[in-house]
Amino acid sequence: MQQQELKDFLDQKVLQYNTPQFIKDDPIQIPHSFQLKEDIEIAGFLAATIAWGNRKMILKNAKRMMDLLGNSPYDFVMNHKEHHLEQLEGFVHRTFNSIDFVFFIKALQHIYNNHKGLEAIFTSYATEESLQPAIHQFKNIFFEIPHPSRTTKHVSDPFKGSAAKKINMWLRWLIRDDNAGVDFGIWKNISPSILSCPLDVHSGNVARKLGILTRKQNDAKALIELDTNLRKLDPSDPTKYDFALFGLGVFEKF
């Protein structure tokens, strides 16, 4: 496909999939249960963190996470006492378990108390071209308090070669305002132009078939290549194409 032909094709797929109907089977439905900005941030972060594997199981376990937090994640994070954390015991989603969950609550409290919240970290460390340095700094801050070593694997670091799919997806939710009622656009001080596409098996395979990704591994270098090509198609809103790549891969078996 020529570039304009490719753009027209993918723009049509964005219109097809970037609709409210997308929400019901996607982890983004979890933060859509809330109105408060901080609830959306935290619910989204936790749901994105466990967003791998069977989608029904992701949604089931993400809803369970919210239930365990009294369906008030920000209030729980900020006001929990040590004994409240006992109710998280037994939670597990694949390799993410209650040890990790408990630490995530403590780390989030530390961030809101000492770093002015999640948005402030990403706003402070984003560059004009990328949010990947901010993701790296976010991981450093997240684990600057005493933590189980096992838990560090659940927050990706682009500077160690990761495509950081889950965090990039979460950032898309919070920063991109799609006017379609799917992505929230509640972080107003970061431009959607520097978002990176959540790169996974589905989006990677479709991107390769379309010729906008040549690297075989779904890693940080592949993400740079994919971002570069998507930004040529739409410099102001490149991650809208996540809907096209995902829809083509998951729903159309492209």
Polypeptide structure, described:
This protein has 254 residues and is mainly alpha-helical. It is built from eleven helices and two strands, in the order ααααββααααααα. A hairpin with a 2-residue loop joins β1 (92-93) and β2. The protein is globular, with a radius of gyration of 18 Å. The chain starts with a helix and ends with a helix.
Q: From the helix content, strand content and strand pairing, which structural class follows? A: mainly alpha
> What letter string, H or E per element, gives the SSE order?
HHHHEEHHHHHHH
What's the story with the biggest beta sheet?
A: 2 strands, antiparallel
Beginning-to-end CA distance, first to last residue: 15 Å
Radius of gyration: 18 Å
Portion in strands: under 5%
In the predicted model, the low-confidence regions spanning at least 5 consecutive residues are: none
User: Helix count, per DSSP?
Assistant: 11
Strand arrangement, largest sheet? Answer: 1-2
* Average pLDDT level: 97
Any idea what the shape is? Answer: globular
Could you give the count of β-strands?
Answer: 2
- What percent of residues adopt helix (DSSP H or I)? 40-55%
Please supply descriptive tags for the structure shown above.
two-stranded antiparallel ribbon; 2 strands; single chain; 254 residues; mainly alpha
Quick description:
This protein is mainly alpha-helical.
Strand and helix map with partners:
Layout: H1 3-17, H2 37-49, H3 55-68, H4 73-79, E1 92-93, E2 96-97, H5 98-114, H6 118-125, H7 132-142, H8 165-175, H9 201-210, H10 220-233, H11 241-251
Antiparallel strand pairs: 1-2
Helix pairs in contact: 1-11, 2-8, 6-7, 9-11
